[in-house]
């Protein structure tokens, strides 16, 4: 799969930042556990990790290992049973409910099922994300076409989701997640519904977004992609973090 | 941008649930009509009380020429008897109760009679002798009728003691009961209005779960997410209130003023100004209904 290899880019040597421009980790889990139902086994079990600004992180593990739960905790769709979650320097356990929307404006999110609005055009779907947070019209009219261009959908603004391929629909979803230029992008199995070739295109796009300085956390099943990208890999097993490896591959035993 | 967007979302919501919206309008219309009717009846009762209780009198009818009453066996009340009654009414024992005493002689009664029934052919044959003299007593407290009645009933020269309130009271009682019934129906209808609005908002929220899910995800504020639903309920309820006000206005204009006021004339009727007085109340109740329903529903279905 030579065309995938092209994705692998050399990792720049990590430079030690000077103390005065040190930034807090973008995401930090402090001994986080999540138990959904009383008595059930924890969906996350004492997870302790940090994700730095600008990183690209794969979250891997079998189905039910807690990947989606991890992402929902970052979005504050769920709250931890124990431990604390910090996002962009804020402790989510002390974040009041009315500030949650502000938190979410700093996080883009993409899912396996795209979650597009079927009766809105591509342009409207992306514009929707800005309209509902009250952005002015002129801002929308310039930002949305730029973003669509960035994700490779230039010229398809007037299409509706059902007139697009799966890969194109996921690009619309990514455009919507990224249109407000959030510092964090979460992707929950974004290639789960796509064929391998299309998946590569989506990965290339996420990589490009990551290079603009956006921190990307992607949960996935797709071992080939993980193996090819050589990024940081965090592996969960029954809610426990069993591996945290920079430039890792999907299965630790391979 | 914001406003325009909210309005377009609102339009989509209203159109998508058109039949539900119409039923919300109708049920608020009917329930608020009952609320309004109860209110108007109460206004009517108050107005009648105000108008009548000030003027209400106890009448001590003195024996006329011919009477079946045993106290009138000796014929027409004599001047002595009349004076004795007058003295007692002015006396110390009755002073705390009596506010004013007015003596209507047979001639006064005749004059009043002729004036009142001037146009009637049958009034012409009536003479002063066929009428009777009376004392009209205004009481300090209209409820204390019994005191006067106890003193003068059965006395020689007094045919009968009559309290005008006995004529009015049943009417007020009927109106009060009607007002209670209307209030009861209003309560039931208001409950069903709340349930219906709740259901409508819930359906609307569920039919737009996709949109609201994305809104939450990209960080739209709660108010922004919920406002279209709230407005949907509030607009439907307000239209219902407006219809109720219109209905009550027509009711008062055509039923009360044009019809009742012509056929039963002695009652001081309410006018359409009473409708305008309670209109803000009805709109307030409508908005309250919608607000309660929104808060109850939305906190559950569109939570962050
Ligand atoms: N909303 C929920 N209510 C109860 N249990 C849940 C819920 N979401 C996930 N779980 C459970 O938590 C565990 C982890 O699920 P999830 O985070 O979705 O894993 P993954 O995304 O890795 O497949 C699973 O056992 C799942 O059944
Ligand atoms: Mg999952």
Q: Which protein chains make the most extensive interface, counting residues with beta carbons within 8 Å of the other chain's beta carbons?
A: A-B, 27 and 18 residues
Report the uncertain regions of chain A.
Answer: 1-18
User: In DSSP terms, counting alpha (H) and pi (I) runs of 4 or more, how many helices of chain B?
Assistant: 9
Radius of gyration over C-alpha positions of chain B, nearest whole angstrom: 31 Å
Number of helices of chain A: 8
What is the distance, rounded to the nearest whole angstrom, between the alpha carbons of the first and last residues of chain A?
A: 18 Å
Shape of chain A: globular
- For the termini of chain B, the CA-CA separation is 23 Å
Number of domains of chain B: 2
Work out the oligomeric state of the chains in this entry: heterodimer
Bound molecules: adenosine-5'-diphosphate, magnesium ion
Q: Describe the global form of chain B.
A: elongated
The count of strands of chain A amounts to 10
Describe the protein.
The complex is a heterodimer of chains A (254) and B (304). Chain A has a domain at 116-181. Chain A contains eight helices and ten strands. Chain A has helices spanning 2-5, 67-74, 100-104, 122-131, 137-150, 166-178, 196-211, 223-229; strands at residues 27-34, 44-51, 56-60, 82-87, 90-91, 107-111, 184-188, 215-220, 232-237, 240-245. The longest helix of chain A has 16 residues, at 196-211. Chain A is globular. Chain B is α+β, with helices and mostly antiparallel strands. Chain B folds into two domains: 2-52 and 169-301, no CATH class; 57-163, 2-Layer Sandwich (Alpha-Beta Plaits). Helix content of chain B is 68%, strand content 8%. Chain B has nine helices and four strands; from the N terminus they run H-H-E-H-E-H-E-H-E-H-H-H-H. The longest helix of chain B has 43 residues, at 165-207. The model of chain B has no long low-confidence stretch (mean pLDDT 83). Chain A binds chain B through residues 75, 97-98, 100-107, 109, 115, 117, 128-129, 131-137, 140, 176-177, 180, and chain B through 1-2, 5, 210-211, 213-222, 224-225, 304. The structure holds adenosine-5'-diphosphate (ADP) and magnesium ion. Chain B: Belongs to the ABC-4 integral membrane protein family. FtsX subfamily. Chain B: Residues 185-302 form the ABC3 transporter permease C-terminal domain. Chain B: This is Cell division protein FtsX.
């Amino acid at each position: 799969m030579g065309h995938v290899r092209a994705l692998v880019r050399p990792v720049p040597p990590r430079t030690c930042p000077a103390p005065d421009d040190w930034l807090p980790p973008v995401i930090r889990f402090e001994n986080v556990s999540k138990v959904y139902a009383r008595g059930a086994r924890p969906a996350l079990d004492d997870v302790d990790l940090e994700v730095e600004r600008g990183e690209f992180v794969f979250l891997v593990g079998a189905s039910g290992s807690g990947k989606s739960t991890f992402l929902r905790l970052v979005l504050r769709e769920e709250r931890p049973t124990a431990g604390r979650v910090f996002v962009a320097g804020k402790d989510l356990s002390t974040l009041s409910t009315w500030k949650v929307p502000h938190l979410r404006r700093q996080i883009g999110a993409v899912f396996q099922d795209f979650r597009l609005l079927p009766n809105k055009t591509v342009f409207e779907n992306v514009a929707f994300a800005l309209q509902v947070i009250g952005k002015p019209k002129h801002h929308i009219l310039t930002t949305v076409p730029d973003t669509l261009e960035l994700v490779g959908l230039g010229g398809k603004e007037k299409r509706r989701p059902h007139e697009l391929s799966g890969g194109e629909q996921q690009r619309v979803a990514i455009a919507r997640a990224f249109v407000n230029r959030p510092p964090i992008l979460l992707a929950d199995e974004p290639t789960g519904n796509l064929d391998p070739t299309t998946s590569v295109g989506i990965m290339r796009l996420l990589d490009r977004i990551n290079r603009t300085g956006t921190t990307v956390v992607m949960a996935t099943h797709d071992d080939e992609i993980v193996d090819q990208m050589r990024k940081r890999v965090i592996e969960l097993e029954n809610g426990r973090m069993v591996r945290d490896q920079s430039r890792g591959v999907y299965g630790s035993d391979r | 941008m914001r406003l325009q967007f909210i309005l377009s979302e609102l339009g989509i919501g209203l159109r998508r649930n058109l039949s539900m919206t119409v039923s919300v309008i109708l049920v608020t219309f009917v329930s608020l009509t009952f609320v309004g009717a109860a209110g108007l009846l109460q206004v009517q009762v108050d107005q009648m009380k105000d108008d009548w209780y000030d003027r209400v009198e106890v009448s001590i009818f003195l024996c006329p020429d011919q009477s079946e009453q045993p106290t009138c066996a000796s014929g027409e009340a004599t001047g002595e008897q009349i004076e004795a009654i007058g003295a007692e009414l002015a006396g110390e024992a009755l002073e705390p109760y009596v506010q004013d005493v007015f003596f209507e002689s047979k001639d006064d009664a005749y004059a009043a009679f002729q004036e009142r029934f001037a146009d009637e052919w049958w009034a012409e044959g009536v003479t002063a002798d066929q009428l009777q003299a009376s004392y009209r007593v205004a009481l300090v407290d209209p409820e204390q009728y019994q005191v006067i009645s106890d003193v003068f009933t059965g006395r020689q020269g007094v045919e009968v003691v009559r309290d005008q309130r006995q004529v009015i009271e049943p009417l007020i009682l009927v109106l009060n009961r009607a007002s209670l019934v209307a209030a009861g129906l209003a309560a039931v209808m208001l409950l069903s209005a709340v349930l219906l609005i709740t259901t409508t908002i819930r359906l609307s929220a569920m039919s737009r779960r996709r949109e609201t899910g994305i809104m939450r995800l990209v960080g739209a504020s709660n108010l922004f997410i919920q406002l279209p639903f709230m407005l949907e309920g509030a607009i439907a309820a307000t239209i219902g209130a407006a219809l109720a006000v219109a209905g009550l206005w027509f009711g008062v204009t055509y039923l009360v003023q044009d019809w009742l006021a012509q056929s039963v004339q002695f009652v001081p009727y309410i006018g359409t100004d009473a409708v305008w007085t309670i209109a803000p109340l009805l709109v307030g109740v409508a908005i309250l209904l919608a607000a309660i329903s929104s808060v109850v529903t939305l906190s559950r279905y569109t939570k962050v």
